[in-house]
Design goal:
seven-stranded mixed β-sheet
Length: 135
């Protein structure tokens, strides 16, 4: 029995269209993420705060998040409290916040971040997208 190649050709064409659309969407998303990263770096260069990365979020509460952060300039780690924000893990933030005593953990060096002290932030994927774009 002979089968017409028509359905196979149509299926192959549909698959090719879907693959092309997904690749185009990924390129657009990566370009947008890279642009966000470059904007964050420009704000950092202009002196609009200090860059940190949220290493791990270990508690989410009604009034904010507790996290471990890493300062991008020094690599130093520090506990942080983000008031009224469930900060995404891995995110990069440009902040101007202050450190103080953490009564729950008896930690003398907790970074307290108010919402208005976050000048800009980008998801973790933004740094990788900028690196891929530069390569």
């Amino acid at each position: 029995m002979y089968t017409s190649p028509g359905p196979v050709i149509v299926a192959a064409a549909l698959i090719a269209i879907v693959v092309a659309f997904r690749m185009r969407s990924r390129r657009k998303r990566n370009a947008a993420l890279a642009a966000q990263w470059h904007s964050l770096q420009q704000q950092r260069t202009a002196g609009h705060g200090h860059l940190l990365q949220v290493t791990r979020v270990y508690q989410r509460g009604r009034r904010g998040s507790k996290a471990v952060i890493s300062w991008c300039d020094t690599g130093a780690r520090q506990d942080a409290w983000f008031w009224n924000w469930h900060v995404p893990p891995g995110a990069y933030l440009l902040v101007s916040a202050t450190s103080g005593y953490g009564p729950h953990t008896h930690n003398p060096n907790v970074l307290y971040v108010q919402p208005d002290q976050v000048h800009a932030w980008v998801p973790a994927q933004a740094a990788r997208a900028a690196q891929r774009q530069a390569a």
